[in-house]
Amino acid sequence: MAGIEDVKNAAAKAAGKVKEAVGNATDNDHLKAEGKTDQVKADTKQAGTNVKDAASGVADSLKNENK
Question: H-type helices in the chain, by residue range?
Answer without folding.
Answer: 2-26, 29-65
